[in-house]
Amino acid sequence: MTATATRAGLTLSGVTLRYGAGDTLVTALDGVDLTVGPGEVVAVAGPSGSGKSSLLAVAGALIAPTEGTVAVGGADVTAATPARRTALRRAGIGYVFQSANLLPSLTARDQLLLIAHLAGRVTREDRDRADGLLDAVGMTAKASRRPHELSGGERQRVGIARALMNRPALLLADEPTAALDQHRARDVVALLAGQARDRGTATVLVTHDEGLLGAADRVVRIRDGRMN
Ligand code: ADP
Ligand code: MG
User: Fold this and answer.
1) Looking at ligand 1, which residue's alpha carbon is closest to its atom 14?
2) The pTM is what?
3) Buried-most residue among 13, 31, 128, 134 (CB within 10 A)?
4) Domains of the chain by start residue, with CATH
5) Burial of residue 24 (number of CB atoms within 10 Å: 0-12, 13-18, 19+)
6) Mind telling me which SUPFAM superfamilies this protein's record contains (predicted)?
7) Best substitution site from 53, 175, 220 to test ligand 1's pocket, by max atoms within 8 Å of Cβ?
């Protein structure tokens, strides 16, 4: 693979993922090729059980593929040692889940500062960055609120800001609007896509909601682990 092909964003080449063995063998991904450029938003659509979450787990270096290679931000994740893979994941990848999974005792602002804390000492620049991200997602006025004082949509907005805190090359969102009504779902997806484009973050958005696909630059469909 050339340096240009993996310079930034995400590249999956010939990725196959199998779970189990023998009678219980499941092929969750079957020869998947996918490239997402910096600032590009790709939506992945497909029915339940088609391999969408498996795709994100492999792209996010949480699971090693059975075959094929994954490169994130120019680094070959599949060839990396487990320690290096963890470091790449922390520094290079942001995740947004179905529910924001915020820590109940922390304010919105502290959810973001925790990310900086985990990476080392919290600097003035980190505080400014957290405040800038909270502003970008429209949460400045509620920066001191804890999760139980926020609506589902607000929690997802904090989750998106948190995922962007470490300036990831890659943002992975697994059905981030599943818990929201249609109107809020559109807002959250528009926000996610806008931030990705502004910040040059390669973004993969998994959704089974056809109404949200318009926010993406490109839509790919997956069925039985195969991409169209
Ligand atoms: P989706 O997110 O599109 O619903 P998944 O990636 O979760 O699909 O699942 C793809 C296939 O892999 C399904 O057949 C599912 O049952 C199977 N699968 C997912 N995770 C595991 C696992 N940890 N062990 C065994 N099979 C799994
Ligand atoms: Mg899933």
Assistant:
1) 49
2) 0.90
3) 134
4) 37-50+81-227 (3.40.50.300)
5) exposed
6) P-loop containing nucleoside triphosphate hydrolases
7) 53
